[in-house]
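Please check this record.
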Amino acid sequence: MDFLDSHCHIHSADYQLDLMQVIEDATSVGVKQLLCVGCDLADSQLAIGLANKHENIWATIGIHPHESDNYVHDHHALQQFRDLASSPKVVAIGETGLDYYYNHSTVENQKKMLRFQMDLAKQHSLPMVFHIREAFDDFWQIFDEYSGIQGVVHSFTAYTDQLDQILSRGLFVGLNGIVTFTKDPLQLKAIKSVPLDRLLLETDSPYLTPVPYRGTICQPKHLLETAKYLAGIRGETLEQLATATTKNSKKLFLADTIKKL
C-alpha cells in the first residue's frame, strides 16, 4: 500500500522527534510521501529546506490565520514570502484561512492575509490548504470572490451542511486523527459522507495523534491508524482507501510533478 500524508509539520523548529527516524518509520508502514505545511515565513522556509533534501517530500508555504497580525503590515516579510512561491518543491499555498475560535489575530487581519494568499495562489496557479474554524460563513464570502481556486479544507470537523458547501465548490476534505476519538455522531455522519474521490488523509503531526497512540507525539506513520479506522466505519478496504486518497493528493498537489513519483 502507498499512502501520502497530505498535511504534517515535522519540519517545524519545535518538532521533538528525530526526523530521519520519523521518515523511515513512516515509509516502513507505507506512508511513503509527505507534504510539509508551512505556517509562517520561517516555518515555510524550513518546510522547503526539508523537502529539498528528500525526493518523497514536498512543501507548502503559508501564513496561518493565528499569525496574521504579525505579517499584515510587514511588507518586507510578505515579499520574502512571495518569493518562496517559485521554489520547485512548493506545491501549494497554505495553511491559511480564518479561525474565530481563538483570538490570536483580528478578524480584519485574518481576512486580509487570506486574500493575500489567495491572490498569490492565483498568480502561481497553485492549490491551497485551508484552515477554517467557526468561520465558514465569512470564509465562503471571500472564497467566492475568486474563481478557479483548488484546494483542501484541512482537518475537517464540521457537519454535513458544511461538507455540502465544500463539495459544491470542488474542494477536497482532509481527515486526520480526530476521526478516531470524536464522540460527535453528527461529525461522524459527515465523515462517512465524504466521497472517496474527494478525501485526503493527513496527520497534522505533531498534533491530533489518533487512537491508540493518544498522549504521544503524532508522526506520519500514525496515518495508518486513521486509515484503518476510516476504512472500518466507511465500509471500504484499507487498500481502497490508500489507493483513492493517494491518487487524490497527487491530483491536487502533484499534477505538475507526477513524473517525479
Summary: The radius of gyration is 17 Å. The chain has one domain: 3-260.
